[in-house]
Amino acid sequence: MASKAMTTSVTGKDPKGPDKPTIRGAGLPSSAPASNISLSPNLLVSLSGTKTPPRPATAESSNTRGFTLVEIVIVLVILGLLAAMAVPTIQGLQDEQLAREPIAELVRMARTVRAKAIEEQRPYQIAFDRRGFHAAQYFQPYGESEEFDQLMREMEVEKREEALRQAAVNRFGELAMPDPDAPPEVEPLYYETYEMPVGTRYQIRSWGHTEWQDITAGLFERWVFQPSGMCRPLEIRIQADKAYFEVKFHPLTGDIQEEHSYVE
Hints:
The protein is of the alpha+beta class.
């Protein structure tokens, strides 16, 4: 049997619905509703006569999305504000460390001097001048900073002589028996110094003074430890750019009794 060609045409309106096309053709009942017929894309193209162009990709259909200029500017402004807030904080922490270091060194030095005074039953002292702190035996009650300069020169001579003697022993050995009439070896003089960091100032208020004394301006002050371990009351204030520490030492123990600090 010869195959019967199928022709398709779009006619009129469906009385059952507004503006719905109906499909009529050979081999199909005229009463078949359009909703029961599937149309292929090729058939739709042939009916319309034109091909619908592809829709361009929109921002919503894309998986990636860039930043706008306004968003970048806002982020840069926030980062700038955070950096401006962090710089003073970092500077304050550096000044705090700079001012705390001399306090810690003075506490250590005071403990050492007090222990030596009790052990050897002789007075020791810590002297304050514009250069820093100096710890040594207490020789001249009315001496000034020149006393410590002289003591330092004597210790340098002793160190050089000891270095030469040790070098000779290492090279030649002990060639001679010790002389029984020779004087006993004298223990080297104790001397210790600490130089104040650059950019710091410090003041002292000792027993009998009601006002702070600016040591960095060229003044000289002593802090004496007796063989009993007692010392005069002492207050010291270390100041850096944005921080200062104020410490009061106990006269019986030589340790910190009160401490006040300020950091911007």
